[in-house]
Amino acid sequence: MLLAHRIALDPNNVQATSLARAAGTARFAYNWALAEWQRQYEACKTMPTLPRPNEAALRRQLNAIKREQFPWMLAVSKNAPQMAIMQLGRAFQNFFAGRARYPTFRRKGRDDRFTLTNDQFRVDGRRIRIPKLGWIRMRETLRFAGRIVSAVVSRIADRWYVSITVDAAHLHLPPAENQGAVGVDLGIT
């Protein structure tokens, strides 16, 4: 069973700036991939011999050009731009399956987030280690035990949060305190 736990982060000013830089890099990669997808799709419509755009090809294309054209992307975790493009691929899958609308461009301030896979971060008590950033304090410990799957770091109203997804095989919830009966008076109008 996959469970997510959202925990408030307590970054200092340098860490908050680095988190904003990583979120901006993820947003830029998503918007770049969406624009490139649209450009490649229009080219594919005019010349049917060209391959259709896909998420894996866009990730390879970004990796090939980011050292020369976007060297500032190397200052953040490699997961930030890669996972953003994978999320765009999932958005197009949902669009083509009829489960969602056409993907739109992400905006600064509203879509400030980036995703990390389980091998890119570590949780130790009340702190989390993010690559190229270091240890950041969390407001509480992780409630669920199990295999950590991923983490999404997001900003909501100038507060940073991390949502950690855990694959919990057996969920041990504490028993409810009050096991009394509940009655409803049917004569009340």
Could you walk me through the main structural features you see in this protein, from its secondary elements to its overall organization?
- The chain is α+β, with helices and mostly antiparallel strands and 189 residues long.
- It has one domain (2-167).
- Helix content is 35%, strand content 23%.
- The protein is built from three helices and seven strands; from the N terminus they run E-H-H-H-E-E-E-E-E-E.
- The protein has helices at residues 13-46, 55-69, 79-96, and strands at residues 2-10, 113-117, 122-123, 127-130, 134-138, 147-156, 159-167.
- Strands 2-6-7-1-5-4-3 form a seven-stranded antiparallel β-sheet.
Secondary-structure topology with pairs:
Layout: E1 2-10, H1 13-46, H2 55-69, H3 79-96, E2 113-117, E3 122-123, E4 127-130, E5 134-138, E6 147-156, E7 159-167
Antiparallel strand pairs: 1-5, 1-7, 2-6, 3-4, 4-5, 6-7
Helix pairs in contact: 1-2, 1-3, 2-3
Distance between the terminal alpha carbons, to the nearest Å?
A: 43 Å
Number of helices: 3
Instruction: State the strand order across the main sheet.
Output: 2-6-7-1-5-4-3
Q: What global shape is seen?
A: globular
Total domain modules = 1
Number of strands: 7
Order of helices and strands: EHHHEEEEEE
Strand content: 15-25%
Quick recap of the structure?
This protein is α+β, with helices and mostly antiparallel strands. The chain has 3 helices and 7 strands. β6 and β7 form a beta hairpin.
Task: Name some characteristics of this structure.
alpha+beta, 3 helices, 189 residues, 7-stranded antiparallel beta sheet
